[in-house]
Amino acid sequence: MNITADRQPTLPPVVKQYYTFAEPPAEQVLESGARLGPITLAYETYGALNTAKDNAILVAHAFSGDSHAAGNYPTDAEGEKPGWWDFMIGPGRGIDTNKYFVVCPNILGSCMGSTGPSSLNPATGSPYGLDFPMMTIGDIVTTQKMLIDHLGIQRLHGVIGGSVGGMQVLQWCVGYPEMVRSGVAIASTMRHSALAIAFNEIARQSIMADPNWKKGKYYGGNKPDMGLAVARMVGHVTYLSDEAMRRKFGRKLQNKETFSFGFDGDFQIESYLRHQGSKFVNRFDANSVLYITKASDYFDVVEPMGKIEDRDGKNHEITKYLVVSYTSDWLYPTYQAKELVKTLKRSGQDVSFCEIEADCGHDAFLIPDQRLTTLIRGFFDGLA
Amino acid sequence: MNITADRQPTLPPVVKQYYTFAEPPAEQVLESGARLGPITLAYETYGALNTAKDNAILVAHAFSGDSHAAGNYPTDAEGEKPGWWDFMIGPGRGIDTNKYFVVCPNILGSCMGSTGPSSLNPATGSPYGLDFPMMTIGDIVTTQKMLIDHLGIQRLHGVIGGSVGGMQVLQWCVGYPEMVRSGVAIASTMRHSALAIAFNEIARQSIMADPNWKKGKYYGGNKPDMGLAVARMVGHVTYLSDEAMRRKFGRKLQNKETFSFGFDGDFQIESYLRHQGSKFVNRFDANSVLYITKASDYFDVVEPMGKIEDRDGKNHEITKYLVVSYTSDWLYPTYQAKELVKTLKRSGQDVSFCEIEADCGHDAFLIPDQRLTTLIRGFFDGLA
Fold first, then answer.
1. What is the percent of chain B with per-residue pLDDT over 90, rounded to a whole number?
2. Distance between CA B280 and CA B229 in Å, rounded?
3. DSSP per-residue letters across B164-233
4. CB contact (8 A) between residue A233 and residue B202
């Protein structure tokens, strides 16, 4: 038996699964009116679905996340990175897999197993590239709903996610309120500010400025790695905070006593960003960045969020909400979380709100923090 | 007589002048130890130097500024853009040219008339490119000091500047305190935070990722316009604020009723940034961006600022300081201005501080605002 460092019970080895909506109609009509199909979603599950099928929690990943939210694959080499939210999901953890059946799908448009611009276009036999239709957060959630239907789940105990994952939570709540017992939106927003759109547009421009991008037709050749790396560097700065960067890097030099008086990078923050950029190009597709950033820019649930209704009005209580923000998140600052809370309250919804004091910026929800764990455990368990 | 829109007295037509330090030693030794020469500074002056030569104010421009701070050139077509601080400098304005003789030099390393990486290297007859030695804010100020010597000025009534211009102010105060009667640092800092370095590094990486950059040897061929445009977009976002962007752009669409579901840009903020990017490539040199951002990253006067002394101790009173910050400046936030004020107070300096409530971010000092004008006029006139 493998004893983990923290000696906590861990998940048994997990497996990535795939579900393809290939039955007629194989093509789905997207929000733009475009058709897409067949669509495959990669997903993972942790814990067991109970016989009432009412203990499922859908975990929605952020922009560049994937379906590997928790545990390790059977083939994982020792020390290989566990799922991106492993500290939150597992036996006895914030989302307790002894109680809940957790589903984490990779989003439509991504490149981690689900159908996206790097997938083969059945009409041509080549990767879609820019022939992939523009999809929205609404389309992402519609495909997730089909997966949940396929798993035989009529109502989710909860939908939870941070950042773009939080957008999916809100979309679930406005699109399928009768299927969502609770929604937890962390470090998220009802819609992008001009600032958030600006940073996304810079990322897109950086990719499209790379001559290797070739209007998206780079598969099989040189990839737009330079542009994608710069795009990731931009993104990464928005996920941090002034305070966290001062604490972590300040003006510390990289392996040097003095300045190089050259452009190789003197400061640790420079090396760190370059490292983040080059790491990203090895695991993510540039076209997926274009599509997912655009979907999140388009996202706007201010109006529907103010008009959420219990669709059938009889069979179930209204959705319960937990909204969490971080003091140092300047991508989706607390004022945006408060706007969401106000909107929900005005439409008579049951909403709890917590602003967590943390200096690590937007990405705080990806860093182990007992406060968030306790909050989430209490919220989900309190629904029972 | 030309009556201006605001019917205020304006400057007579101004002329860009050049001063070349060509007398032996034609080469200057820079802080890095490298030699550079001959060096030319482009500069403009407004108002008249009095016979005592004690009414001169040096205006230090920001990162991408130039020597054209005020007035119009004789050849200016009607409606052509006046100097970048024209609302501040002129007869009866904040820096009153009826009283003061104003000098604004283009900084070393720039591309607006002063020697920089796009200048001809006398050793090769070709533009320097990356053979241009790395220069510092210290080097920039040393060359400005040589210009002030050349003009026969022994002591400046003041040195004033915003952002990187403010760094030059602080450098003047630590390097030549006996020559500076007063220093006004606006929206500036004693040294870059990791966040500021991060954004500069992203700008540099974006330029260097452009295949047209060719390690700086692009003169005479295709320029790295795409990389430079993205770099400028990044810079531009850091000059604005969340609030200003919400007010100005929000989620307004560009000439459209609905989303395009494509990558041409739907939101006004996207078009605005693209416009800023393409405007910049027509007027600025990519290598100058590399050198000036690096110089500002290296800049750090925390230690010398705490030890400023009256160098001769007899002939003049100590330098008087005015430090101004803006509430919405997240590039050099108010806490950094307060650190400067504290440092100056600890070393017994005479310092006034004002935080201006404004939602337009770092670039606020470039936008007409009577509060700043009044503050500066009062400060300079109060020294008399």
1. 86
2. 7
3. HHHHHHHHHHHH-GGGBSEEEEES--SB--HHHHHHHHHHHHHHHTSGGGGGG--TTS---HHHHHHHHH
4. yes
Question: Shortest Cα distance from A134 to chain B (angstroms)?
Answer: 6
Helices B225-239 and B268-281 meet at what angle, rounded to 10? Answer: 120
Nearest CB neighbour to A194, from listed B209, B211, B246 = B246
A163 residue type, one letter: S
* Interface test with chain A among B36, B202, B212, B278, by most A beta carbons within 10 Å: B202
Give the predicted TM-score (pTM) of the model.
Answer: 0.94
Nearest residue of chain B to residue A191 (CA atoms): B251
B320 beta partners:
B182, B350
Are residues A198 and B226, on separate chains, in Cβ contact within 8 Å? no
Residue with tokens 């970048």: B84
- Return all residues near A52 (Cβ < 8 A) that are at least 6 apart: none
Task: Give the active site residues of B.
Answer: 163, 329, 362
Per residue in A243-289, pLDDT (tens digit) is 999 999 999 998 778 899 999 889 999 999 999 999 999 999 999 99
DSSP strand pairing (B158-162 vs B182-186): parallel
Confidence of residue A1 (pLDDT cuts 50, 70, 90): very low
Dmax over Cα atoms in chain B, in whole Å?
A: 71
Domain boundaries in chain A?
17-192+299-382, 197-292
Kindly state the tokens that stand for B365. Answer: 């000092």
CA angle A34, A138, A69 (to 5 degrees): 120
Amino acid of residue A3: I
Q: Kindly state the average pLDDT of the residues B153-177.
A: 97
Does A381 qualify as catalytic in the annotation? no
- Tell me which of 3.40.50.1820, 3.30.390.10, 3.40.50.11810, 3.30.420.10 is the CATH number of domain A17-192+299-382: 3.40.50.1820
Residues B245, A330: C-beta atoms closer than 8 Å: no
Residues in chain B closer than 8 A to A240 (CB atoms): 195
d(CA A8, CA A340): 36
Inter-residue contact B79 to B44 (CB < 8 Å): no
Identify all chain A residues contacting B233, using CB atoms and an 8 Å cutoff: 198, 201-202, 205
Max Cα–Cα distance, chain A, nearest Å = 71
- Which among B249, B254, B261 is the top mutation candidate for probing chain A, defined by the most A β-carbons within 10 Å of its own β-carbon? B261
Q: Which amino acid is at A167?
A: M
Look at residue B3 in the predicted model and tell me its pLDDT: 41
> What distance in Å separates residue A123's CA from the closest CA in chain B?
20
Q: Where are the alpha helices (DSSP H) in chain A?
A: 137-150, 164-175, 194-208, 225-239, 242-248, 268-283, 286-298, 302-305, 334-346, 370-382
Residues B126/B127/B128/B129 CA torsion (nearest 10 deg): -120
CB pair distance less than 8 Å for A205 and B32: no
CATH architecture of B17-192+300-382: 3-Layer(aba) Sandwich (3.40)
* Contacts of A228 by beta carbon, 8 Å cutoff, 6+ apart: A206, A207, A210, A277, A280, A281, A284, A286, A289
- Tokens 């003197």 found at: A266
Q: Each residue of A94-118: pLDDT tens digit?
A: 999 999 999 999 999 999 999 999 9
Domain B197-292, CATH number (from 1.10.1740.110, 3.90.550.10, 3.50.50.60, 3.40.50.300): 1.10.1740.110
- A/B interface, count of CB pairs below 8 Å: 153
**Nearest-by-Cβ selection for A204 from B248, B263, B294:** B263
Across the interface, which of A267, A270, A298 has its CB nearest the CB of B259?
A298
Question: Which residue from B194, B205, B297 is facing A245, i.e. has the nearest CB?
Answer: B194
Cα–Cα nearest to B197, from B245, B166, B234, B224: B234
